[in-house]
């Protein structure tokens, strides 16, 4: 009984603290609401089952974001999904579904960011829209800071190209 | 005084905001030249005035504002010593988006700006995609209305946004 109560408390804490942010990260990758919600649920479940120690709040947040991105990648890589879900169908106005906690002036840029190849997309999304530092992104994505800087620079060039051409590249 | 970098890699900024890092030396020499020319100009004007007033037996002791600079009647431009720039470097305090009154996300330019109105000043934090983080304090009383300076413009937007939302709230309360 006590265990169940503790579990419920933990679950509530996770939902209150991270649900919205993780949903945005998942949506940036999945491009549709239902999949993004499934991904967040799965990330929470993995967190509850995780037996490795979580050192602090920063670690907890990074762990959850990393897991969320990994789940997204696994789903996107699956051959079933590639056959059955054409990504472009859900793309128009996708940025309106991101529900950022602040107003953005330019939907087109966010739309272009969501269309970036995955390794650029997550770095750019976390840096600009979730206000993560390069160091934090490197921790979340398990990459070197230099790699993240390169992705930010190249990703920015890709965003410019997408905006200039008005169509996606390398989805 | 130019804006200084706070922390960061110290990389010169071809990708950073115009009018900021990487301009210190150039700006200094430009300012000096500008200052010299203005001093000469004002001294010339003041001399004319002194001649005229002197002949009328009046004392020249006026202080006027010209082009936003404080100029004494004697034609001595005091801005180099006493006039402060609207934008001053400040200590970075890692303000979050939630704490900010205004946010500018410029993916294609490679930076984000966060602003918060604090009395008559706006605290601005800039984050660049090369890893630099800088903070500025903008004195709104010193920002020219038609400024093209990106930080000053952003600070103006922040202040205007906050003032208009405050006046809307006041109006709603009155209604």
Provide a brief overview of the structure.
The complex is a heterodimer of chains A (171) and B (175). Chain A is an all-alpha fold and 171 residues long.
List the helices and strands and how they pair.
The complex is a heterodimer of chains A (171) and B (175).
Chain A: H1 2-30, H2 33-49, H3 57-77, H4 79-84, H5 107-114, H6 118-129, H7 134-141, H8 145-165
Helix pairs in contact in A: 1-2, 1-3, 2-3, 3-7, 5-8, 6-8, 7-8
Chain B: H1 24-56, E1 63-66, E2 69-72, E3 87-90, E4 102-106, E5 111-118, E6 121-128, E7 133-139, H2 150-174
Antiparallel strand pairs in B: 1-2, 3-7, 4-5, 5-6, 6-7
Description of the molecule:
- The complex is a heterodimer of chains A (171) and B (175).
- Chain A has 171 residues and is mostly helical.
- Chain A has one domain (2-165): Butyryl-CoA Dehydrogenase, subunit A, domain 3.
- Helices cover 71% and strands 0% of the residues of chain A.
- Chain A has helices at 2-30, 33-49, 57-77, 79-84, 107-114, 118-129, 134-141, 145-165.
- In chain A, helix 1 crosses helix 3, helix 2 (33-49) crosses helix 3 and helix 3 packs across helix 7 (134-141).
- The radius of gyration of chain A is 17 Å and the shape is globular.
- With 175 residues, chain B is of the alpha+beta class.
- Chain B has a domain at 85-174.
- In chain B, the strands form two sheets. In chain B, strands 3-7-6-5-4 form a five-stranded antiparallel sheet, covered by helices on one side. In chain B, strands 1-2 form a two-stranded antiparallel sheet.
- Chain B is globular.
- The model of chain B is unreliable at 1-24 and 53-83 (pLDDT under 50).
- Chains A and B meet through helix 5, helix 6 and helix 8 of A and strand 4 of B.
